[in-house]
């Protein structure tokens, strides 16, 4: 259960990758606030939309899109604005932490990883900012990860993108603060989505990670929702250019 943020009721929200993993939890969280939610992803999300409508009484708008195609990304953002009004909350959530080693990366993989994990964030923000300016403000939440703070090996292009997201967040916050557009990053720890469980979670690896957390419990997608709702709402109206870490206490900031 999450606090209710009245200003999110009726807000036009767009979430990249909003039909699975953390994104699905975010979609449900915003729907339960009364927001008008649109989201994109590559795979079909019809069944998820049916489930959300049954659970919350509201149906999210699913717009199929490969976010590495910038023209398609801009098109679905325009469609969301046409359906729900100018997007006033953008959640750049979609990412891909495909494991790779530095010596095996070629330019094709590098460009693909950057397109998903950084380039799409920039151009999604670029697409919605004029609408936010027109209505007097908005909130952009850029999902990063604690992986770059930990200096993890095994996905260097991904961690480079995570670090760059912080730089992008701070620059956009500075540039568009006069328009009352707030831009913050949200850095989760190791969240046990189904994808993580299927691909990378092992008993030994999970035990080692939990030993690094201050809190003893593994993170679920639901654990990230409250922080994102806070950053989207006017409860955080004086907060911009910041990185909010939700990781059970692995890294310590400040």
Automatic annotation (TrEMBL):
Pfam families: adh_short_C2 (PF13561). It is an enzyme of class 1 (oxidoreductase). CDD domains: SDR_c. Its EC number is 1.-.-.-. Residues 11-190 form the Ketoreductase domain. InterPro entries: KR_dom (IPR057326), NAD(P)-bd_dom_sf (IPR036291), SDR_fam (IPR002347). Coiled coil: none annotated. The keyword Repeat does not apply. One of its GO terms (molecular function) is oxidoreductase activity. The keyword Oxidoreductase applies. Keywords: Oxidoreductase. It comes from the Bacteria. Belongs to the short-chain dehydrogenases/reductases (SDR) family. This is SDR family oxidoreductase. It comes from Gemmobacter denitrificans.
